[in-house]
Amino acid sequence: MTSSPTSERASSLPSDAGELAFRHDFLAAEFARSYRWLRQYLRRHVNSPADAEDVASSSFVELAAMPDLRGVREPRALLTTISRRVLFDLWRRRDLEAAYLAALAAADEPTTPSPEALLEVVQTLNHIDKLLRGLPKRARQAFLYSQLDGMTYNEIADLLGVSASMVRKYISKALEKCYLCA
């Protein structure tokens, strides 16, 4: 039986009654003090009040999932950092979805995938994006040039200013990462 990320997070949270009381008090006070402020901060960075609301909520969920809140000295600074990461993930997901839809629109034969198929492809692209984020920049670029643009190792090597054998190593490392997480 596999555990979900939520159950893994829950198991890493303290079970001591005093610690739980501290967590509850800290999170309730910080939510009351900073939620509106964070939402207004985010509103300046997104076009939609709903997006600002979603990112602010997700930021507090991530704060609540932290195992040790006693070390948090500047909660607003931490919330700002968390919210920026959540916001970048939102933008990255939207960029991937837009690129996929653009590729569909540019296809020779117009196709309209079902909403389920579209969701599955977008989720897969997000998963691949997360996998590739752990690679060095050149390895990521080499993999994408090879898989998306159909470039040869020599073409990629010329573009990146490395040898073809280095490109082979980059792509091998990226494929290994994909296979291990499949």
TrEMBL record:
The keyword DNA-binding does not apply. The keyword Transcription applies. It holds the Pfam family Sigma70_r4_2. GO terms for molecular function: DNA binding; sigma factor activity. Residues 32-95 form the RNA polymerase sigma-70 region domain. Residues 128-178 form the RNA polymerase sigma factor 70 region 4 type domain. It comes from the Bacteria. Keywords: Sigma factor, Transcription, Transcription regulation. GO terms for biological process: DNA-templated transcription initiation. Belongs to the sigma-70 factor family. ECF subfamily. This is RNA polymerase subunit sigma. It comes from Pandoraea thiooxydans.
